[in-house]
Amino acid sequence: MIAAISVVAAPAPATPGDAAPYSLEAVALLGTNGTDVYLTVSSATDALADRLEKVQVKALPFGGDNLRTSNYFELPAPGGAAVLNLPNLARHRQLQFVAHVKAGDQNNVEAATQVLLRRISLSGMSRRRPTSFAGSISPSPPRWPRSRATAAPQPPRRSSTGAFESRRSR
Description:
The strands form two sheets. This protein has a seven-stranded mixed β-sheet, with no helix packed on it. It has a two-stranded antiparallel sheet with strand order 8-9. It has a domain at 21-123: Sandwich (Immunoglobulin-like). The chain is built from no helices and nine strands. The chain has strands at 23-31, 34-42, 51-59, 68-76, 81-86, 94-103, 105-117, 157-158, 164-165. By secondary structure, it is mainly β. The protein starts with 22 loop residues before the first strand and ends in a 5-residue tail after the last strand.
């Protein structure tokens, strides 16, 4: 006779004293000029700092590349939003962030994300930047140029004799 016993430990609920005053969200977009990382610090109760004292970025091992760790100091973050321009990182590479937010006390906040591909418009190299860091990024689909077969018909125009003629008759 075989008996199986399973024990599952549920995490203890956080008490109000354990709640961190700040949270960090990160979005990393791979484009033609490197990887742009958008960091957003938010707080429901405390004022936001206008800079991040230190941001540590860990690019986890991926596709034969080793762990990479970089530190950035005195990063401007007006309104809690900061942007880092990193060299090209592979798409889907996992990133971890630790930021020091100092507003009175020093608070360490953490976030994780993976590198996503930035959509580029077909009409040029203009970038689509997220308008809201809090929500998911779902840029609108690209606008494809109309072919002549699907273009709207043109109204007739007058010839030099004053008669109407179709533009297609030329």
